[in-house]
Amino acid sequence: xNDFLRLLRNKGFKxxxxxxxxxxxxxxxxxxxxxxxxxxxxKNRAPDVSLDTVYRNLTLLIRLGIVNQVNLPGRSxxxxxIVDGNHHHHLICLSCGHAECIDYCxxxxxxxxxxxERGFTVVSHSLEFYGYCRACxxxx
Amino acid sequence: xNDFLRLLRNKGFKxxxxxxxxxxxxxxxxxxxxxxxxxxxxKNRAPDVSLDTVYRNLTLLIRLGIVNQVNLPGRSxxxxxIVDGNHHHHLICLSCGHAECIDYCxxxxxxxxxxxERGFTVVSHSLEFYGYCRACxxxx
DNA sequence: ATAGTAAATAGTAATATTACTATTTAGGAG
DNA sequence: CTCCTAAATAGTAATATTACTATTTACTAT
Lengths: 140, 140
Prior knowledge:
Two copies of one chain form a homodimer. With 140 residues, the first copy, chain A, is of the alpha+beta class. Chain A folds into two domains: 1-85, Winged helix-like DNA-binding domain superfamily/Winged helix DNA-binding domain (Arc Repressor Mutant, subunit A, Orthogonal Bundle); 86-140, Dna Ligase, domain 1, CATH 3.30.1490.190. Helices cover 39% and strands 22% of the residues of chain A. In chain A, helix 2 crosses helix 3 (35-45) and helix 3 (35-45) packs across helix 4. Chain A starts with a helix and ends in an 8-residue tail after the last strand. At the A-B interface, helix 4, helix 5 and strand 5 of A face helix 4, helix 5 and strand 5 of B. Chain A binds a DNA duplex (30 and 30 nucleotides) through residues 12-16, 18-19, 34-36, 48-53, 55-57, 59, 74-78.
């Protein structure tokens, strides 16, 4: 976690207690907390933290590549995931919203370099497979 | 578009005027309409169509793999894209929300087959590269 | 340590998305 | 063509997310 704080500092962002609390909550509520769950967890230590602050900090962390936002289509809200070491992607059930990690990543650095040559600076990527899990398959 | 209607029929879904209108709007408002834009377009022909109907049909089309939902992290709402022939993915600017298509797709059928062996039926996948476009790069 | 400054925050308002219910309707059977 | 039934819809309520503004606070330089 000190890595994240150092990165924030280096980029010129302030280390507020609220910001630290959001990062802590992301780790404590793993895996896949919603913004609301993060907010609830943060409020244990700091009851006055607003929802806006949680969302604002999540957005910042996403922009820095520290957090992944995993979208569950057709369900309310997204879930979040802190980028803790091992890079991976997800299978997401379109029926029940269940997400699970897969270690597979086919993206090659060469292609990222190509995007950069086109004037686009890549900070992260996400790959999601959508479908139906074992439990939901009969219904789908 | 007849392909989409035929698929819906084959799966047992009804071909309502509202549903046809949503599909038409997806094509007419290309690229990357929001749900609100689709709703506005649909209301031209059918003023009483509710927002709920638009969202419900988008969800259905997503579940069938006919539509992609492209999430723009930290911005309000998602944008949608009808799956019209050529499979592709996206570069998304975290600052201004601009999305552009890239023809690259590294996902190999073999890996999809592996997920299926684990009991997960894959209907689609999405790959997004997040970063900063040429215009926003100085600020990022 | 103190003051200055821009960033961050709390609280609230606005918007986007999803859930719910009574009613309507598409498509199939007779 | 008419009836039947489950699916789909409109309208509304509930929830999730983002935007805005006055105030507070972390950090820098003195």
